[in-house]
Amino acid sequence: MRVTIARTAVLALVCTSFATGCLFTVRHELPPNAYFGKFPSQPHEKIHRFKDHGMKNWFLAGLGPYTRWSSKDLLEKNGDGSHERIENLAIETRFGTLDTIIWVFPGFFYGYYVWAPRTVEVSGSQVIVDDR
Questions:
Q1: Contact (CB, 8 A) for 48 and 126
Q2: What mean pLDDT is reported for the chain?
């Protein structure tokens, strides 16, 4: 009888661990010439700082995405293609205000498996070298 109870408890713990809602794994793709650090300054370079964010929607508590855009798409949206490189890049996946509201209120009713949003925020500096 003790073996049956122990097996049932272990099985319940394993099943619960799969249903915790911590299944989010995000893979960020970067465009060419994007760097997390900073290059030495060059003459005639112009630096434009940017910061942008977008909501990425997931289903099954983070197992799969509804939206198909990536960090690369969010970074390229900020530029006109004339930049030489992107420096001081920072990418953060977090709970935004709306994400938290969706997680707390409707999440209790549908268990967070139907809609699980996260906010992806990117920031950095676009460097344009003007040789004129």
A1: yes
A2: 79
